[in-house]
Design a protein that fits this description.
By secondary structure, the protein is an alpha/beta fold. The chain is 36% helix and 14% strand. The protein has 10 helices and 11 strands. The strands form 3 sheets. The chain has a 7-stranded parallel β-sheet, with helices on one face. Strands 1-2 form a two-stranded antiparallel sheet. A two-stranded antiparallel sheet has the order 6-7. Helix 3 packs across helix 4. It is globular and about 55 Å long.
């Protein structure tokens, strides 16, 4: 496992996005726990969760509790594992995703996350999404207060832009350590944010990093082919599809071509490509099966050649 940094912490170059373990289509408890344990066995030391990762209108904090149980029941050392969680979003019964960024709500949400995770301080707490009804500096001010009170060790922001990153950095200084935006071969709107993170020394945590290669948990169930023999066994896994699929640009076929040449999955090639984009990138692919996260973790050891990186860059128009 290669490593990168979040603040002053060393973390695995590939993390685990735990969201698929708690939302629609989630696995049973046994498989969910086995998935987290497989991640830890593979050397993954960054687990990403949120208080809103749960079924609509049911069990807020389900994913946080699950991650806490998985860590508590793991037979190995978890002292170096960084659990990142987020506050500021909700999932009412209609299945929508609400946004609440008031200081009062964020502080209350952090307190609840602390209890669910069973820790003295949250390793990394992130504002899940800016609330258009609340001045951004007020939401970030709540993170500052939580830092000052010792309830969180580091702060991050998610689903944001360069202006807000600069504002949060001005308020929090070096206690702001991460930005979590959607970023993948198919969705690269956050190129400016990635460049700014590299400039400021902030970790950039791409969510849904396999877009264009696999479907996201937010896209709904994958359309899986009947043949389950290919792509390192991924084709039977509901959190990864084996090909670009309907509606995806054929330019992403380059990832599959490189994967065939290397004898690995296209998802592994995609994650390795993301790691090659910048030393501040720490992808957090989702998984709902042990085999999936084991394969994803393997991307940290997949060194693409400069020629392969250039070929993939050309495929996505970089």
């Amino acid at each position: 496992m290669r490593y990168r940094t979040v603040g002053e912490l060393r973390v695995s170059a590939v993390g685990l996005g735990a969201m698929p373990l708690s939302i629609e289509g989630r696995p049973d408890e046994g498989r969910a726990m086995a998935t987290v344990h497989a991640a830890l066995d593979a050397g993954v030391t960054l687990l990403d969760t949120a208080d809103s990762y749960h079924l609509p209108g049911d069990e807020p904090g389900h994913n946080e509790r699950l991650v806490a149980r998985a860590l508590a029941t793991y037979g190995g050392d978890t002292a170096d594992v960084l659990v990142t969680t987020k506050g500021g979003r909700g999932r009412p019964a209609d299945g929508s995703w609400t946004v609440t960024g008031s200081p009062r709500h964020l502080k209350s949400a952090a307190e609840a996350s602390l209890k669910r995770l069973g820790v003295e301080a949250i390793g990394l707490y992130q504002l899940h999404k800016p609330d258009p009804a609340v001045p951004f500096e007020d939401s970030v001010g709540a993170l500052r207060d939580l830092l000052d009170e010792g309830k969180i060790r580091y702060a991050g922001i998610s689903n944001t832009d360069t202006g807000r990153i600069r504002l949060a950095h001005a308020i929090l200084g070096d206690r702001l350590v991460s930005v979590q935006n959607q970023y993948s071969p198919a969705v690269r709107d956050s190129e400016p944010e990635l460049r700014l993170c590299a400039e400021l020394g902030l970790a950039f945590l791409p969510w849904s990093p396999l877009g264009g290669i696999s479907r996201s948990s937010l896209d709904g169930p994958s359309r899986l082919p009947s043949d389950d023999s290919g792509d390192s066994g991924r084709s039977t896994r509901p959190d990864h599809a084996t090909g670009p699929g309907p509606g995806h640009a054929t330019s992403f076929d380059a990832f599959h071509a490189v994967a065939r040449e290397r004898g690995v999955s296209p998802q592994q090639v995609c994650l390795a490509w993301l790691l090659a984009r910048s030393p501040v990138v720490v992808p957090i692919p989702g998984a709902s099966r042990p085999g999936t996260i084991r394969d994803s973790a393997g991307a940290a050891e997949l060194e693409l050649t400069p020629e392969e990186v250039a070929r993939l860059d050309a495929a996505v128009g970089s």
